[in-house]
Design goal:
The protein has 372 residues and is α/β, with parallel strands linked by helices. Helices cover 32% and strands 21% of the residues. The chain contains twelve helices and 16 strands. The chain has helices at 12-23, 64-70, 98-105, 110-124, 132-140, 142-157, 195-202, 218-222, 234-237, 323-337, 346-349, 356-371, and strands at 3-8, 28-32, 43-46, 49-52, 59-61, 84-87, 90-93, 187-189, 207-210, 225-230, 247-257, 267-270, 279-282, 300-309, 318-319, 342-344. A seven-stranded mixed β-sheet has the order 7-6-12-13-14-11-15. Helix 4 runs antiparallel to helix 5 (132-140). It is globular. The relative contact order is 0.21. The structure holds flavin-adenine dinucleotide. Flavin-adenine dinucleotide (FAD) binds next to helix 1, strand 2, helix 11 and helix 12.
């Protein structure tokens, strides 16, 4: 055996494990089938703008251990996620807060806003919500539902809210304060220089081979290492022998524009049903000061996001956490438990939606168990 560990996948999970293994004195080889490192947090430098190629990524966490860990590999800027909702040209602050309520109803105080929502809830007479529409109205009333929830959710899921189960939205964050910070997280930011630079630092001094698909030459790769950390899709590992796990996918249309400022914010959500995209990301605002009007760089890059049905072969994004897929995953999990040499981890290996901080925490836990 040439290596102690073969790590399949150079995303956050694989890169964190590889770093810890090297630190523990182990020999490590990382492979990835993509031409670049960093998995889904890959950012590409386009004329000084770090484009989030696989969707906008905002680092946010309440986990101090993880925050301290990532700060060893990157300096984080002070980006705060404050998306704007565009409903047929009417702009609203997100998450729903006093600015939203003032724009929606002209109310000024929290008491007035709470009263308005309570009135609309009561008027809807919903005691046991039977679908997502009823659930949303019973949480935030009809106006917010109609303008800010309905269209966006229907585009995201590709189905009317009346046909979606209520459990998808257990709660909708409503704040009776003037706070546009989307996340309830103590720590938040974007790595200066992009995520790829941060992952490159994690992988510093570790052999990485790109453009290599583990599953195409599994026996050869397996023969090279004592242990395998596999962060690819669990169903693909077993040749989809029990069937394919389902995902929701996203399609990105990226444009380079010769103007300094397209929308004045990193994220604008289009909450009406008629606009085909769910949101537009303007990448430069993740990194540059919010007040420079783009004067430093007379160009910008935007990505329109379209939510789409996933079919085998598409990039998998969001696991579908329903009963059918949960049960299928469990059957694959049972097979995985029998693979004594292989550890399955990360969002694809565990068929789980993980935020970045959670995937790092999970990789660190696994490294502790694995490396002692
Ligand atoms: C659209 C979107 C937006 C998101 N936004 C946020 C956000 O704002 N904040 C946040 O905290 N989290 C966000 N996340 C979650 C974040 O992307 C994940 O937590 C993180 O990327 C998971 O890392 P990973 O290493 O598990 O998987 P990945 O990054 O997917 O890495 C897996 C790697 O394995 C490689 N691989 C797979 N199969 C093989 C094979 N057979 N051979 C070789 N290599 C293989 C892949 O090419 C890939 O590079 C978002 C996720 C999505 C989908």
């Amino acid at each position: 055996m040439k290596y102690d560990y073969l790590v399949v996948g150079s995303g956050l999970y694989g890169a964190v494990f590889a770093h810890e293994a090297k630190k523990a004195g182990k020999s490590v080889l990382v492979i990835d089938r993509r031409p670049n490192i960093a998995g889904n947090v890959y950012t590409k430098d386009v004329e000084g703008i770090h484009v989030h190629v696989y969707g906008a990524h905002i680092f946010h966490t309440n986990n101090k251990k993880v925050w301290d860990y990532v700060n060893r590999f990157a300096e984080f800027n002070r980006f705060t996620n404050s998306p704007v909702a565009n409903y047929h040209g009417e702009l609203y602050s997100l998450p729903f807060n006093m600015y939203t309520f003032n724009r929606m109803w002209g109310v000024v105080t929290p008491v007035e806003a709470e009263k308005k929502i309570a009135e609309q809830r009561a008027a809807a007479h919903i005691t046991e919500p039977k679908n997502l529409e009823e659930q949303a109205i019973s949480l935030v009333g009809t106006d917010i539902y109609e303008k800010l929830v309905k269209g966006y959710t229907e585009k995201q899921w590709g189905r009317p809210c009346t046909e979606l189960p209520a459990f998808i939205i257990r709660r909708l964050p409503v704040r009776f304060t003037f706070d546009n910070n989307y996340f309830n997280a103590l720590y938040q930011g974007i790595p200066v220089g992009g995520y790829t630079k941060m992952v490159a630092k994690l992988l510093d001094g570790i052999e990485v081979r790109l453009g290599e698909d583990y599953l195409k030459n599994k026996d050869v790769w397996d023969a090279m290492a004592d242990r395998v950390i596999y962060t690819g899709a669990i169903d693909a590992y077993f040749g989809y022998s029990l069937g394919a796990l389902e995902y929701r996918s996203v399609r990105f249309e990226t444009e380079f524009l010769d103007i300094p400022n397209f929308q004045g914010n990193a994220a604008v959500n289009y909450t009406d049903r008629e606009t085909p995209w769910t949101r537009i990301i303007e990448h430069k605002w993740f990194e540059f000061g919010k007040d420079d009007g783009g004067r430093d760089l007379p160009k910008t890059v935007i990505s329109r996001e379209y939510s789409s049905e996933w079919k085998p072969g598409d990039e998998p994004y969001y696991p579908v956490n329903d009963e059918k897929n949960g049960a299928l995953y469990q059957r694959y999990r049972n097979l995985a438990d029998r693979e004594k040499k292989v550890v399955f981890g990360g969002r694809l290996g565990e068929y789980k939606y993980y935020d970045m901080d959670a995937v790092i925490a999970s990789a660190l836990d696994m490294a502790e168990r694995e490396l002692g």
